Amino acid sequence: MSDVQAKSKTHGDLIRVRRPGHGMPGELFGRQDVFETDVDIFFHKHWILVGVTSDVPEPGDVSTVDIGKASIIIVRDDDENIRTYRNVCRHRGARLKEAGKSTVGMLVCPYHQWTYDLDGSLRHAAHMGKDFDPTCRSLIPVKTKVVGTHVFVCLDENAPEDVSKLEETMVPRFAPYDLPNTKIAFEQEIIENGNWKLVMENNRECYHCAATHPELTASFLPEDFGICADSLSEESLREFEEYTARNAACQASWERDGFVGGAVEWLGENAVTQFRTQRLVIAGNGESQTMDTKVASIKLLGNLQRRDLGDTHLWTHNSWTHVMSDHAVIAYIIPLAPDKTLVRTKWLVHADAVEGVDYNVSDLTAVWTATNMQDKHLVEITHEGTQDPAYQPGIFSQFTETYVEQFSRWYAARLNAHGV
């Protein structure tokens, strides 16, 4: 296909010509018009993860997140509720806060000093006259769901209702960890020079893990996400049988102690708020995603006494989460350009855990800081390749890339639902 032919195809045309079981056309990763439509549909009209409750631990704490042309303010109010608002002054539209975190008594517009309470109400607007009614000038609220510690928002008035499935599934799974009673031990921001869909595709498969993620595979078992038995040696087959037996034994043990672990998938073309969860077995000592597979923090989450609770993972279309007995790793993405994606990762520990006593940051973060940088490289070389004139979408492994194929189908279905 020539450059002229490619540019003449619409966003919808490009996804509809994708062959089942194959990657997406390169134009879907590189074109500006495709990127802008993606942001509008997948980040402004769907539920997305934008932070955690410990981003704003105290009343007056603010976290501002930019998403395309939109910007939101996450704030903890005086009653300790999480509230979110559009970052737009109701006077002449100035941004109230720059991206990042801060602490305020009230939200004051830097332009004309219109002043808003933490509940969003307009408290002060000078020189507006006696007929001015401040009650209809409150900050614009954003639809918000707090699930565990996860702060999900939808910028559209017609927010997808099936977020209730995610909420109903994850609230009891997160409950034993008491995630609202955590603090951020470490944060990392990476800008990956690749399209957001490639970031998520990379996260949806572990075909690449054994060769590229030595730190992760010390604790993470790629078998959980597919394996082709045809290519295994007799020794590898025995190891897989051992893995299967261990997995079954762990799941039974967790169930006996009341820890839910079975896989729940809301991923198909009929799903809007896409998610997957499962309690995964951890290799080695079986305690945590650390280099020695033991807990990194001796102060466990919640009131837990048991260390070997596996990894409660959660996928959404812009995030991934791993919750162990001692800490949680929560990451989400924000697209910045066709070839740039911001990846934010937060490591959470018990709110009372003391650095240097209960945990060391280096032990806590070693696995995922390394994995994130390795994934950054993989995404970047893949994005570069998809923009090469020689690129032709390749075939997926039916054993290890089934979730990548599923993501492609879901992406196409959501575009179609919005008339693209």
Automatic annotation (TrEMBL):
<keyword id="KW-0479">Metal-binding</keyword>
<dbReference type="InterPro" id="IPR001663">
    <property type="entry name" value="Rng_hydr_dOase-A"/>
</dbReference>
<keyword id="KW-0408">Iron</keyword>
<dbReference type="InterPro" id="IPR036922">
    <property type="entry name" value="Rieske_2Fe-2S_sf"/>
</dbReference>
<dbReference type="Pfam" id="PF00355">
    <property type="entry name" value="Rieske"/>
</dbReference>
<dbReference type="InterPro" id="IPR015879">
    <property type="entry name" value="Ring_hydroxy_dOase_asu_C_dom"/>
</dbReference>
<dbReference type="Pfam" id="PF00848">
    <property type="entry name" value="Ring_hydroxyl_A"/>
</dbReference>
<keyword id="KW-0411">Iron-sulfur</keyword>
<keyword id="KW-0001">2Fe-2S</keyword>
<keyword id="KW-0560">Oxidoreductase</keyword>
<protein>
    <submittedName>
        <fullName>Rieske 2Fe-2S family protein</fullName>
    </submittedName>
</protein>
<comment type="similarity">
    <text>Belongs to the bacterial ring-hydroxylating dioxygenase alpha subunit family.</text>
</comment>
<feature type="domain" description="Rieske">
    <location>
        <begin position="47"/>
        <end position="153"/>
    </location>
</feature>
<dbReference type="InterPro" id="IPR017941">
    <property type="entry name" value="Rieske_2Fe-2S"/>
</dbReference>
